[in-house]
Amino acid sequence: MTETELIRLIRRGQTTVLGFGISNVPLTEYLLSLGAALTVRDRKNFKDLPPQAAALREKGVRFITGEGYLDGLSGDVIFRSPGIRPDLPGIAAAVADGAVLTSEAEFFFLSSPCRKVGITGSDGKTTTTTVTSLLLSEAIRLTGKKGKAEVGGNIGIPLIRQLPLLTEEDFICAELSSFQLMSFTAFSPEVAVLTNLSPNHLNWHTGMEEYAAAKENIFRHPPCRALVTNAANETTAAIAARAEKDLPVTLFSSAGKPAGGARRIWLEGGDILTEAEGKTAVLFSGVSRIRVPGVHNIENYMAAAGAVLASGFSGETAAAALGAVAPSFGGVEHRMEFVRRLRGVDFFNSSIDSSPTRTAAALSSFPDKKSVLICGGSDKHIPFDSLARTLAARAKAVVLTGETGEKIAAAIEASPEAKASSLRVFREPDFARAVQKAASLAEEGDRVILSPACASFDAFCNFEERGRRFKELVLAL
Question: How far apart are CA 404 and CA 461, in angstroms?
């Protein structure tokens, strides 16, 4: 379906928005501006919805809320919130009756004339999205071209808000989650970045196979013309090998020069190198100059550089952009964010770390065993065996909190590596007391890191709220 056909259907028929959250609030406002006959359905009671709901109801938007919000679902066009599975019985029945199922992100991709770079993966999405936009902005400036680069999507800025602001000369760097990508069945961004893949969100997806398949939608469909992905990650390397049959692939790796790919980007001797069509060049000299710490952030920069090259900029321009951005960009909030130094102890907020692989990446920033970790949160049904090994190898102590505290403790107790290590384990279900306990365990020269390896929903609305609460508690120490 084309943009014109979809908008015609929206204007002439009945449109339903499922979920009234961060992205669907502005979506509802935009659809109303198109003249849509609108119904919003949400599991929450009306009184618990964002304040915009009352104003929209005054303008004629119908609201169906509460536990039976999907009862009798119908309409010509249905916009799904990312957190609502597309195969729920009510949705499936409406689609079988002829409804068009779409989403805010898909509508943006269909409607905006701008150039689109999509970024997904299990870890590093937000940093890579941010760095890609900074590099593209600098590349545009260096080449004297028109246009700008913006961010949107899962990064926290609804794509629909960017729709009236972007022209065909501009770029959107869109962070896309597996929840958003699950229903991308006909459209992909021109340039797709897949940072890595590891088990995640298995409490929502039916399994790793569905999770990976959702991620692959970022490059499976037109007009995608380039995939940038991680050769050092076993899962994405296998995906790349299959994708090479259909489109050019850029492979990046922090573990040496990749084999295969139309272009290769890798870390060698402290420099980032690139090779394409038999020609090798230095993209960035001296990765110690990258301001955000850790090998995982070097990988994020390589992924972003691959996106810039795949977007049509030369190696020389990409190198100059890296030289301008990498030494100055200090990172994104809640991602190994330095909070303060107190009595010789450094405190870091990495509340975004909602999986064991993210916690491993955070700890890889430091070669010593002077880290006291705060771990635990809501359960995404991810095994914690690898987390136990990571903590045994890289942490001095860990304070376990939240819903998964006991589950992580059991994994540590069952780990031969943990048993053989000097790792000290403490349990403190209350988050504030966990922060205080971690601070009491740290000595001068140590660091305390909030790196939960779990989602936040057992005690907080989101990881941002968790991170801000951590910072409040640390600054009050």
Answer: 17
Q: Using alpha carbons only, give the angle 447, 456, 84 rounded to the nearest 5 degrees.
A: 150
Set out the domains of the chain in order of their start, with CATH numbers: 3-102 (3.40.50.720), 106-325 (3.40.1190.10), 337-475 (3.90.190.20)
Contact call for residues 118 and 223 (beta carbons, < 8 A): no
Q: What is the pLDDT along the chain (477 residues), one digit of tens a residue?
A: 788 889 999 999 999 999 999 899 999 999 999 999 999 999 999 999 999 999 999 999 999 999 999 999 999 999 999 999 999 999 999 999 999 999 999 999 999 999 999 999 998 999 999 999 999 999 999 999 999 999 999 988 999 999 999 999 999 999 999 999 998 888 899 999 999 999 888 888 999 999 999 999 999 999 999 999 999 999 999 999 999 999 999 999 999 999 999 999 999 999 999 999 999 999 999 999 998 888 999 999 999 999 999 999 999 999 999 999 999 998 888 988 889 999 999 999 999 999 998 899 889 878 789 999 999 999 988 899 999 999 999 999 999 999 999 999 999 999 999 999 999 999 999 999 999 999 999 999 999 999 999 999 999 999 999 999 999 999 999
Helix (H) or strand (E) holding 96: helix 89-96
Q: Give the closest residue to 97 by CA, choosing from 77, 117, 70.
A: 77
| pTM as predicted | 0.82
